[in-house]
From TrEMBL:
Gene3D superfamilies: Aldehyde Dehydrogenase, Chain A, domain 1, Aldehyde Dehydrogenase, Chain A, domain 2
A Pfam family assignment: Aldedh
Known catalytic reactions: an aldehyde + NAD(+) + H2O = a carboxylate + NADH + 2 H(+)
Keywords: Oxidoreductase
One of the record's GO molecular function terms: aldehyde dehydrogenase (NAD+) activity
Family: Belongs to the aldehyde dehydrogenase family.
Tagged with keyword Acyltransferase: no
EC top class, as a word: oxidoreductase
EC number: 1.2.1.3
Annotated Aldehyde dehydrogenase domain residues: 20-474
Protein name, UniProt field: aldehyde dehydrogenase (NAD(+))
Amino acid sequence: MQSYDRLLIGGKWDAPATPSVLQVISPLTEEVIAQIPDCSTRDIDRAVAVARASQDHGPWPHMPVAERIGILRKLAAGLRAHELDFARTQSEEVGSPYSLISAIQAEVAAALLDYYLDLGSTYPFEEVRPGLFSKALVLREPVGVVGAIVPWNYPLSLSFFKLAPALLAGCSVILKPDSATPLHSYILGEILQEIGLPQGVMSILPAGREASEHLVTHPDVDKIAFTGSTAVGKRVAALCGQTLKHVSCELGGKSAAILLDDVALDQIITPLIYRALPNNGQTCIAQTRLLVPQTRYAEITEALVERVRTLRVGNPLDPHTEIGPLVTQRQRDRVDGYIASGLAEGAKIAVGGKHPPAMTKGWFVEPTVFVDVNSSMRIAQEEIFGPVLVVLPYADEEEAIALANDSAYGLSGSVWTADQARGIALARRIQTGTIGINNAGLDPAAPFGGWKQSGIGRELGREGLEEYFELKSILLPPERPPAFAAEERAVPGL
């Protein structure tokens, strides 16, 4: 068992304020694999204090952008150098299949850094704009101290959705990983110590609910960047609203994959299933609602079920595993509850629905496909966050669009077709932040975020960087008198 007794506060390993510890439990063996300090509100206060000093008096926000980029290039190199360490750790603490998910997380994080650092080399942090009366010098200055709160499902890569743009912008950051999956953050902390970040720029504090809420409400934190459930996101946004603190929230999803009647099943079934059940179904952009044409319902459903039946369930470190365990017993209980709900409401299980009998330990759920589903059922409306899919038939494209939009969420989606133009035309009518054609995922250059209850704000792309700026306009001396300046004018009628 690994044991950690320090927290990274302002770039230095320091003892926690209290002796309390948290246990990290393996989702595969159900045994304790590590213990970490239980971060307290006093630890949050210390981290915020050094971040505030860094933001107000330190060199990081004021150094030339090229110098920040040079330091952050070292961070990208460090991530790649520790790629195997991150991969094994995330499979052990999250249960993510090694070959499909964990092995690429460090590269994804480094690629995000690469994208933003390349963008930063040409981005207009300052620009002079022509105006009606005078020119304006427009400055993009760092928003300030950032609290970055990330979930457990993709802990490293999702951290860099926030860290890459925030650090490039010149912000000091307090990163709060989920206390259920904190082990990767200790590897990250060692890299951060090696690259030459000034004191106070980075802290990493795994924390529970009380300390996390303290971070959100702390008066010296200028922005909260949150990824997690919609329920918690609403709470975070409400707390930030009390002081008009900057906030961005990437929240839940119930994304629809629309299969059109011209789709070639032999070409799309495997990529579709991988995008429907990534990371054991624990993915906000998972394509969990499969909308299929009524004319091909039996054929497509049979192909989906047969492919799901072949998915290999097992040890996440086995390179052949496609479905690993869920992250915690609580999460498995949640998924079990949704499966029971689907049956109670009249849906039928075409495959799966149980705990795999071969796995005597671990929080496993068989990959599951529901049929005879209607859009009003909980399993068709609520985010399950497990390996559970629902198949719904549609009569024509208008009904497919209506079904896809019949959701409180709007985070992702996809259209599967042999005709790209037809797919794009349909995608334009789906109420969602990101949608793919024969694809479902993300790209660093494309803004990512949700419509409706899937969030506020954007990550990735140029727009993701702009979430970490305050705008300042410096009006230069006027080039001609303003329109409201006093001047002699004839009064009509006199």
